[in-house]
Amino acid sequence: MAKKFITNSEDHPIKHIGFIMDGNGRWAKKRGMPREYGHKFGAETFKKVMEHCCNLGIKATTFYVFSTENWKRPQKEVDSIMKLLDRYLDDCKKELDEYDLRFIFLGDKSVFPDGLRNKMIEIERLSSQHKYIVNLALNYGGRDEIVYAVNKLYADGKERITEDDISSALYTSESPDLDLIVRTGGDLRISNFLLWQSAYAELYFTDKLWPDFNTDDVDAAIENFLNRKRRFGGV
To answer: Residue 127's CB: how many other CB atoms inside 10 A?
Structure first.
């Protein structure tokens, strides 16, 4: 990760960008490799894209790492993803003092092994005062998040719930609503990703598989966004 971040994120037209990182398995299969190799190369793309978005001054970036449905994948592939995550968390912890990144893990952490879960909690605590938010959606589903938020509000004694209440109870309560969702891999859907937060998000789809995605592709998605007129239900 780069050590230099610009400090004028307030001026960037995108406050929150989300990435649905699709195509790791297909990328590997095209090269005659097991699917888990695609996740390894995809992890490198994730680091480059995360760094680039922060250098651009974007306040919040969310990556769809592992959905609630992804547990249905072959056990070997799931195990490979968990090992990659564990290694990344170790590297992340070592470098926290060098970067102005605040890590937040979206989703139900209770299903993860104690060691992995404790690393997530510690990294969230250690980075809590940093400026640029990096949300990692793990064991995450948009519908599940909304249910979680409503139940949390009821448990807090809320009897009449407003939109603002729900927004404040979501995993992403520290982030602005999404401006732009980028999905790689060619599929034209959002797959249960940040459903509440994406109510007025612009959608950008590319056929590129995630390991082939690069910083120029991020810039192209942002340029496409800037050429759109956002009306938010108006004229």
So the answer is: 22
Q: Supply the DSSP symbol for 129.
A: T
Helices (H), the chain: 24-30, 35-56, 75-95, 114-126, 142-155, 163-169, 215-226
Known catalytic membership, residue 86: no
Tell me which DSSP letter residue 134 carries.
E
Answer yes or no: are the C-beta atoms of 70 and 85 closer than 8 Å. Answer: no
Catalytic choice (22, 24, 139, 217) = 22
Q: How much is the CA Rg of the chain, to the nearest whole Å? A: 18
Interacting residues of 211 by C-beta distance below 8 A, sequence separation 6+:
23, 24, 27, 38, 41, 42, 44, 45
Whose tokens are 């470098």? That residue is 95
Query: How large is the angle between the packed helices 75-95 and 114-126, nearest 10 degrees?
Result: 30
Q: Residue 178 and residue 163: Cα distance in Å, rounded?
A: 15
Q: Is 70 designated active site?
A: yes
In degrees and rounded to multiples of 5, residue 39 shows phi and psi of: -70, -35
Write out pLDDT tens, residues 138-195: 999 999 999 999 999 999 999 999 999 999 999 999 999 999 999 999 999 999 999 9
pLDDT at residue 22 tops 50: yes
Phi then psi for 51, rounded to 5 degrees? -60, -45
Out of 55, 70, 214, 224, pick the active-site residue.
70
**Does residue 65 contact residue 138 with C-beta atoms inside 8 Å?**
yes
